[in-house]
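help with this:

***
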Amino acid sequence: MKTDIEIAQEAVLEPITKVARALDMTEDDLELYGKYKAKISDEWFERNKGNKDGKLILMTAINPTPAGEGKTTTSIGLAQAMSLLGKKTVVALREPSLGPCFGIKGGAAGGGYSQVVPMEDLNLHFTGDFHAITSANNLLAALLDNSIQQGNPLNIDTRNIIWKRCMDMNDRALRNIVVGLGKKSDGFVREDHFVITVASEIMAILCLAEDMEDLKERLSRIVVAYDYEGKPVTAKDLQAVGSMAALLKDAIKPNLVQTLEHVPAIVHGGPFANIAHGCNSVRATKYALKAADYVITEAGFGADLGAEKFFDIKCRKAGLKPDACVIVATIRALKYNGGVPKTELSTENMEALKKGISNLSKHIENVKKYGVPLVVTLNAFSTDTDAEIEFVKSFCEERDCEFALSKVWEFGGEGGKELAEKVLKTLETKESNFKPLYPDSLSLKEKVETIAKEIYGASSVSFAPEVIKAFGKMEELGFANLPICVAKTQYSLSDDPTKLGKPEGFEMTVREAYVSAGAGFVVVLTGQVVTMPGLPKAPAAYRIDVDNNGKITGLF
C-alpha cells in the first residue's frame, strides 16, 4: 500500500494559475509562490465582495482517538466529490503546524487520494505565514523587554507580564524559562514562557481579522502586561503595531493550492482547537464564499472543541451562518470509545460499538443545539462489517440525521459521491436556523459554565480563586461581553483525557484565565492542558529524511 507522501509525490499537479480559473481568478489576481502555490490578492476580493455567498458546510468529528477519524481527508474528499457532481466547490482549510509534523500527529494535508498538494510544501514551510506570525509575536516580546530595560517608562509591573514568546515547534523545555540572565545590559531578570505559534494571540488575530485596518486595530488592543496601578499595558502603548503589521502584510492574504483532483483549496491560518480557536481564517472563508457555490471548511478535533469555537467565536465575530454540518466518525474509533484496545479494533464487536457510539450521540446532540442541519459520515475501513455499518446508519437516522459511507481515502472524489449527495439533499430540504450557544450578556463565569454543562456534559465547574479574581478584573476593564475560548484535552468530552465515550456527572476544573483582547475572546485553561506541547518518546522527526535529489520521505 502506498503512503500518503508517495501518493502525493506521484500526482501530476496543474499550474495554480489554471486551478484559479475554476474560481474566475486570473493570473493578475494571484501573487505566485512558485508554480503550484499562490496568495489571492486583496484586489480580487474587492472586485467580488458583492457576489452572492455560496453555501457554507462545516466538517467536524467525534473526539479523536489513536484509531483515527479522517476529518481533513473527508473534507477534501467531499470537495472533490461535489466537483465531480458539477458543483463549483472550494475547500477552505487550516495550515499545518510544524509541531505535530515532527511530533506525533503528522501533517494536515489529508490522506490517501484526498489530499491537498504540494503536500511537502504545505506541511513544512508553505508560504511562510507561520514564520511571520512567530516573528511578529516575538518582536512584541522584544519591545516589551526593551521598554523595561530602557527605564520602564510605562511602569510595567514585571511580576504581572502576560505576553509570552512563541515558536512553531513542540519544545516542553521552553514552557517555563528565565530571561535576562547575565550582565545588567542583558535585560531584566524575570520568569518568561513560550507557547506554540498556533496557540499565540497573533495567530488568532490573523485568523479573525477582516482586513489590514482590522488587523492593526486588533494588534493595538493586545494586553501584554499590567502596570503598578493594575492598568493594562497594550501593544499600542509599546508602539509595536506598525512594525508587527509590516511583518504580517503578506501573511494576512489567503493561500491558494489544489487537491489531488485539482479542486481549488484555500488554506490559511492554523490555530489548534484544543488550545486555541481551531478554525482557518475569516478572510479565507469569506474569499471562498464569494468564489464558489459550495464551501467545505473544517474545525479542529472533536465538535466539543473546534465546532463549538467555530460557532461561538468565529461565526459570532464574522457574521457567518453555516448552512450544514458533517460529523465524521469511524467504526474503529467508536469501538475504542467503547473500551476496545487499539490492537483489537479490526474485530467485529457490537457491544463495544453500542457503548462507544455514545460519543457520537453527544456530538449530534451538541450540533443540533446550534440549529444547523446535520449529516453523519463513516470514514470507511476494510475491517468494518455490514452489521456494524448498519447499526451506525440506523442510529443516525433515528436521530433525524442523514447518513453516508465515505471512501474518499481509497477512491478520492468517487468515494465521496454518496456523502456529497446526502449533503446536497440536506442543503436543499433543511433550513439552517443557526444561533450561538450563549448570549454576549452572560458573565464570563456563566459562559464557561454553559459550555461545560451544555457541550461537555459536566455537572459542575470548579474555578481556581485566581480565575475568579481574573474574571472580575476583565469585567472591570470592559471584557465581560467577550466569548470564551476553552483550552481542554481533545481526547475526551471532559477535561480528563482518560474519560472516553460520554462521561457524565463530572466536575470540570478551570485553573487559569486570561484575555486575548486583540483576538476578542477570553481563554480559560482546564485540567492539565498545556499551550506548548512536548515531543513523544519516538517523535515523527526520527523517520523524516531527504535524499540528494531533494525528495522527502517519512512525512505523513
